[in-house]
Amino acid sequence: FIAKDHKYDKSIVSAITIIKNRVENKFWMLNKNARGIKKLKPGDKAVFYAASVEGRGFCGWGELATEPHPLTPEQRFYAFGKPSILFDFAVDFKVAEFWPKLKPIEEFASTLSFLKGKPNYIRCFRGSIKAITQEDFEYIISA
Question: Exposed, middle or buried: residue 76 (CB in 10 Å: 0-12, 13-18, 19+)?
Fold first, then answer.
């Protein structure tokens, strides 16, 4: 799952803060039209990627407990900043972990299968959902 910096009033909320909030509340907000949303199912695992002015990299992981569903009123309460306030769906986590130290993307550019040979690998992190292999997932969480 990919999060980017959010606009809130006249300030910026870092993607890292957004991810930390989502992990603490054990759900991830999604746009119902996000590419790949219909493929998400309980038991799927995700790593959290932050695209932020504070840094770009991985900062946690989670295992899905649910399929995508409309946001509950309680979940909507935790939506702050744009684009999250525009999202209308969520997946809940069975397990979610935030890593306080960002794992910079530069450390993975030559090892992850979906980044190898791509000179502008940052472009691979557009959208909010990016499918990766089990091997890449395991490499990221063990690094």
Answer: middle
